């Protein structure tokens, strides 16, 4: 028995960690946090190519804690957003991270939107979310400058600083977090684990690999030898800041188009008191294409060579044309905002940092609607985790950790 114990220790020491996570956004850091909470003593290493956490999807959104009202009952998005919203508020309170539960309005401005608004009422109730219906006078009472035919008030929506949440998750996890570690090669062997090489030549060995690479998750899956059977097609969301934040009290959204996974141009009073306006959704010309001037031919070529990209374009070209128009024309963007907030002028909209959504697309052009987590030998891949993934990051992290620990136990 003594010899057997020594043998186990020697085998274990050949690895740098038990669970090796690629990606230091909120999902990767939540996974590290969940692993060490569920199995204290498990060695976790996180590799992040940037010089700090939350530099992409996590740190470039409007900071909304989503209620889960939009998502299909029973889906991972619905279950994890509802649960995650409550847990995120509790986490922020526990670690003194700025946050507020503000509620939000979803406003119908045209008669054609009323059936979709009423459907959201039903969906919210099915998901266990408190939803209250408002008429025009009640809309003005809640938001004096907003106009609409009808609205619903969703009480569990809030805002927080997700960058601060990600940093706290990393610190509380106790993981070995390595920044500036750009993964360029993965040697994954089902009988051994994974050896990862970074751009500076460092090799890190783990018994189980977790892919939380966000905008690069499909490429990372292929590096590990797995076919993700999807591609990330990047969509840029462009934002403005409202020069007159006093026009807004809280959060106001349009009624979304159920055929497309984007929520439309909305107004969000952030935790710092500023009001974000946006985003639209236009194709990005690079995985990290935060402006029209950022073009990476290899990445653009990969997007254009994926059959699903062309099928999206054919299916949604009218919607896409409107988004492109709002991208190149501030007047058109202002027009979209004025549907909700008539007092806005072009001068009220000040350019703000853009974000890029990592949208998984299947070969047939289907936009993957739910969170997507797949497994390979000694590997867990998070392949679709756009909004509301920040809201849902704690439950997502636990699910990914559960799978990683099961793989660890099996080997």
Structure description:
- By secondary structure, this protein is of the alpha+beta class.
- The chain contains 12 helices and 22 strands.
- Strands 1, 2, 9, 10, 11, 12, 21 and 22 form an 8-stranded mixed beta sheet that branches. Strands 6-7-5-15-16-17-14-19 form an 8-stranded mixed beta sheet, sandwiched between helices.
- Helix 2 (26-38) packs across helix 12 (393-410), helix 3 (76-94) packs across helix 12 (393-410) and helix 10 packs across helix 11.
- It is globular.
- The two termini are 20 Å apart.
- The model is unreliable at 1-12 (pLDDT under 50).
Task: Name a few traits of the molecule.
22 strands, disordered N terminus, globular, alpha+beta, eight-stranded mixed beta sheet, 411 residues
